[in-house]
Amino acid sequence: MANYSTSEFKSGLKFMQDGDPCSIIENELVKPGKGQAFNRVKFRNLKTGRVNERTFKSGDRVESADVMEVELEYSYTDGEFWYFMDPTTFEQHAADASAIADCKNWLKEQYIYTITQWNGTPLLVTAPNFVNLTVTDTDPGLKGDTSGGGGKPATLETGAVVRVPLFISIGELLRVDTRSGEYVERAKS
Amino acid sequence: MAINWQPSADIETLIWRAQLLTDVRHFFAERDILEVETPILSQSAPTAPYLDSFTADYIPIGEASSRQAYYLQTSPEFAMKRLLADGSGPIYQLARVFRNGETGGHHSPEFTMLEWYRPGLSVNELIVEVDDFLQQILHTPPAIKRRYQQLFQQYLLIDIFTSSDEEIEHCAIEQITGLPADLQIDRDGWLELLMTHVIEFELEKLNVPVFVYDYPASQAQLAKVVKDNNGNAISARFELYVGGLELANGYDELLDANELQQRFEKDNQQRRSQGKSEMPIDENLLAAMDYGLPECSGVALGIDRLIMLAMNKQTIQAVLSFGFEQS
Question: For B197-253, what is each residue's pLDDT tens digit?
């Protein structure tokens, strides 16, 4: 198994820590003028999504993690797994609920998703920054919550609820920013 | 792949850098402190166990087989002390220095150090001058002073003079999450970790420059070891922290050549036990000190970090025309 020395640490490097694949967010050399050198590392556990901090003695080595990112097209779900297809080989990959997590709100057929795989198994599914989704439910017309903030809630075809302007009605196609979960504009269908 | 040939600092930063160096020279000219230049290459090198010099071979023309080892300076300290011993009076230098292996957001293997020496000035008087320097060059508010012991007492509830090695180690393991389970370091190693991982963050929150002084005698480096008011042995040394960065290190300079030789030899022993090669001791410095170094205080300050603070840059590469990886 390949391994990395602390001198190779940089953001995005994938390594194994306590049995889980992790990705470095921040690496800092900590060394007083004539003192011993350490690397203070902030990293994300790719399995749990949690951010941790750890200090390594400079020169120590860590095991590399076989983590790859692939771009796959969403096909369908059978309720237990979500299936994605490689658009060139037509090979299917099944992601479980923990890999889908919050991305569930933004899954739509034929969109391309970034799948982070560890030893070939999907670990994390990341939505494209923008998807177009149809409104399945919202209060009619311009009636809505006028108490503050403006807008009204609308349920989209995936089940996601976003705040939309008062003029939006059922059946309209909206462009949504998946990172903030916010309405952007009406989409051209 | 496209070659990234462009500077790692933007031109605005380089203009600032030039202005700042002018301001620095002005500061010293006003005080009649002489600018000096000393050799970057030396036949000897510092022995400090965690300081690694670059080596460079001298090869007389046509004599490829008779290489002679030279070292790139890690600071201009030794040569400047030889000038002091010869009666130079107060001197300063803006020196390019080299420290092998040290790469990071706040470290570059090649960087610029401002070092100055003040014969006749006590270390406390030098702290006042460094504070004046900061206020004039960086426009900082007046600095505050904290004793090393006081900081460990206040933030960690340990007494660096009376706590046992085990108590200090336990404190570090309790305070710092994610340390290697098998970490084997000495008392000073644990103290340094508590400094860099706990106390430095507390100092940053104070939002003013902080001089930390009266270091443990075991961290004296090239400073005198003296007794504090309570009779504890301390090193007459200070470090300056600004905005979370370790910016300067100053000493009441050790004058005793025999004492220095013993420290060098102890360092070399420690290097050997770590599997590192011993460094050739600077006999010129020892001879100069034998001849007589005047009572003096001295300080080394990282110019690149000073520019980072002045320009609010997050990495040292952003204030260097070309960072080490692009050099």
Answer: 999 999 999 999 999 999 999 999 999 999 998 999 999 999 999 998 999 999 999
Reduce the DSSP state of residue A185 to 3 states and report it. strand
Instruction: List chain A residues with CB under 8 Å of B176.
Output: 55
Element (H, E) at A7: none
Beta bridge partners of A138: A154
Residue B141 backbone zone (phi > 0: left; psi -120 to 50: alpha; other: beta): beta
Q: How far is CA B128 from CA B21, B30, B122, B135, in A?
A: 21, 16, 10, 11
Residue A189's pLDDT band (boundaries 50, 70, 90)?
Answer: low
Cα A68 from Cα B315, distance rounded (Å) = 29
**Which of B102, B176, B221 is the closest to A29 by Cβ?**
B102
Question: In this structure, which topology does domain B11-143+208-326 adopt according to CATH?
Answer: BirA Bifunctional Protein; domain 2 (3.30.930)
Q: Smallest Cα–Cα separation from B120: which of B77, B89, B83, B96?
A: B89
Across the A/B interface, how many CB contacts are shorter than 8 Å?
A: 62
Does any CB of chain A come closer than 8 Å to the CB of residue B249?
A: yes
Could you tell me if residue A12 is left (phi over 0), alpha (psi between -120 and 50 degrees) or otherwise beta? left
Yes or no, beta carbons of B192 and A28 under 8 Å apart: no
Q: Is the minimum CB–CB distance between B107 and chain A shorter than 8 Å?
A: yes
DSSP labels, B183-245: ----HHHHHHHHIIIIIHHHHHHT-S-EEEEEEEGGG-TTBPEEE-TTS-EEEEEEEEEETTE
Question: Could you tell me the two tokens for B66?
Answer: 């008779």
pLDDT of residue B292: 96
The answer for B 39-58 residues in CB contact with A (under 8 A) is 48, 50-51
B185 touching chain A per CB within 8 A = yes
Question: Does the distance separating the beta carbons of A29 and B246 come in below 8 Å?
Answer: no
Residue B26 makes CB contacts below 8 A (sequence gap 6+) with: none
Chain A environment of B107 (Cβ under 8 Å): 29, 31
Distance of alpha carbon A73 from alpha carbon A60, whole angstroms = 40
Q: Identify the H or E element spanning B320.
A: none
The pLDDT of residue B125 is 98
ipTM of the complex: 0.91
Do A33 and B249 lie within an 8 Å CB cutoff? yes
Domain residues of chain B, as ranges? Answer: 11-143+208-326
Asked whether B115 and B77 are in contact (CB, 8 A), the reply is: yes
> Chain B, 225-244: which have a CB under 8 Å from a chain A CB?
239
Strands B144-147 and B210-216: parallel
pLDDT digits (tens, 9 = 90+) for A90-137: 999 999 998 998 899 999 999 999 999 999 889 999 999 999 999 999
The secondary element (H helix, E strand) that includes residue B248 is strand B245-252
pLDDT attached to residue A49:
83
